[in-house]
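Recap from last week: sequence in, structure out.
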Amino acid sequence: MYPFIRMFWQFWRHRADAPLPVTGTHESRHIVMPWDLDMWNELNNGRTLTLFDLGRMPLSKRIGVIDGLRANGWGMAVAGVSVRYRRRVQGFARLTMRSRAVCWDDRYVYTEQGMFRADGECTSHALVRLAITDRRQGGVVNPARLMEALGQDPASPPMPDWIAGWVRAEAERPWPPMADARAASETRAA
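Predicted structure tokens:
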């Protein structure tokens, strides 16, 4: 089940935090609970993605995105993610999460998030591609329109090479997925 109570707690906990610039870093604290664990008493890889939501949504509030989405009838959806899992995280571990928007292109906003142990070592890092959606018109809203709605410069900061490389790799990734495997399977069956 989605951790709605924890999400509300994060919004409440950060309700009086100062607004951030669009590329500002939001820092939040989290405890790994028993229901976040897999059978090895370690943070489940899928739950890691859910915990990243708990940092990204308050970030969105602090930089004004949530208000901008509501004012325009837009939504926000994860359109891709790449995660590096580097250190084991066990039950009741206390983590600091850092979340920030890095840049955007004509379709997506790219955010990065990291979870850090008390000694400062990063346990996991995510690059998240977010789409601003418009249910009325269907499709994806150019992030420059969101920035204009927020009263911000619509021009993106320079895209770092490591994000640009991921964007290129995603563009080359076949869709629909596994089409070659399906064709091979159909050939064998015939």
